[in-house]
Structure formats: structure tokens, C-alpha cells
Amino acid sequence: MTARNLSDDVPERFPGLHALDQAKHWDEETRSVVLSRVGRPPDIRFFDAAEEAAATALFDRLLDQHPEDRRVPVTAMVDARLAGKETDGWHYDSMADDWEVWRTSLAALDDEAHAVHGRAFAQCGEEQQLDLLSGIEDGEGEWRGFHRARIWSLWTRYACTAFYSHPAAWDEIGFAGPAFPRGYKNLGVDRREPFEVADAHPDDMPQGGAAR
Fold first, then answer.
1. Which of 160, 173, 192, 206 is the Cys-Cys partner for 196 at CB 3.0 to 4.6 Å?
2. Domain boundaries, the chain
3. Could you report the per-residue pLDDT of 75-88, keeping only the tens digit for each?
């Protein structure tokens, strides 16, 4: 299992880049959509308390976020999607609807943690959580009734969709936000717009992150 590990690079990698500084250039609809993702996260409406705890721990390990520096409220963003039944518009024919699979897979994750460590997934240490997730991703056959690659796809798809839709993540990866309606005029490799910032460490890319 691998996890993103960009947090140490945030202040230096794209110095001076803050995607929200471009909000004045967006049309009202774009600005409204982006700004709705910052500030106070929406209340949890889909997950119960145990599911919320398991989901938060899962997302933290997948995205290498930690409570002390968690900038993107991934659990709340995924919860809002599931409460509104806003899926990707498809699901594997061997699996139930996404909202049902989220409930059953988080329960299975807690069952796995109880079987191995005698406690819920959220109560396990980070290394224990990483070991459990590595076993799920890399194991053979089905995992507690789930196709391993497909449940892994569901978890990571929702996690990454939420994380990389947030301006805090845009600042990490050097994305200045939607260039709408003004568009782009400097097309081509290494041709930046005035509002874009060069990578201060182009030869120092993270290689797979903090986990195995």
C-alpha cells in the first residue's frame, strides 16, 4: 500500500500560490461551487458514529492526513455525496449500490480490525491500520465477501475525488483553480499563465509516500 505524502512540501513547492486568490476572476456559479467546499464542513447525515470513525481513519491513511494538520474534510464531503445519492453514475455489476457498499465495507473493516487487534479500525494505531489496509489491497481471493480490487477502487475513488476537489489540495499540486471564464492563452509544455506558479522543487517529486 502507498499513500500520498505531500504535506511537508506545501509551503515551499509552489510559493505564493493560493487558488482562492483567483476567485475574483471566476463567474458567480464557479465561485459559489468552489467556496462551498471551504469553511465549516457539512453536518454528517449518512454515516452513523461508528461508520464516521472508520471512514475518517480510512481516509486519513489513504491520503496521509493527520488530525493535527487535516485540511480537507474528506469524510464530510463523502458523507454529503452518499446522503444525496450522488455517485459516479455506475457501479460494478457484482456489487450493490455505492451507499450500501460503503456501510457494509466499513463494518467489514471494523470486523477485520477486531479479529486481528481486538478493537475497531479507528482505535488501531496508524501502523496497524496501514498493515490491515495492505493486507486487504494485496491479499489473495475475496476479502470478507468483496472483490479486493473493486472495494479498493470504491474507497480510493471517493477519497481522491473529495480530496482533489478542495482548494487546499490545489495549492499542494500547483493548480490555481478553474480558469473560467478567462481561459488559457499560453498553451504548451512549461508555458505558464501569469496566475500560475512554477514548481520550486521540480526534481524532488514524492515517490509513493509514507507507507510501504
1. 192
2. 9-38+166-212, 49-164
3. 999 999 999 999 99
Beta-carbon-side half-sphere exposure of residue 140 (alpha carbons within 13 Å): 0
Cβ proximity of 77 and 162 under 8 Å: yes
Residue 27 has, within 13 A of its CA and on its CB side, a CA count of 5
Average pLDDT over residues 65-79: 90
Q: Which amino acid is at 113?
A: A
Q: Which residue matches cell numbers 501569469?
A: 194
Length of the chain: 212
For position 207, what pLDDT does the model report? 54
CA gap 82, 77 in Å, rounded: 9
Q: Which of 17-31, 125-139, 183-197 has the lowest mean pLDDT?
A: 183-197
Tell how far CA 66 is from the center of its chain.
13
Is the confidence at residue 8, as pLDDT, over 90?
Answer: no
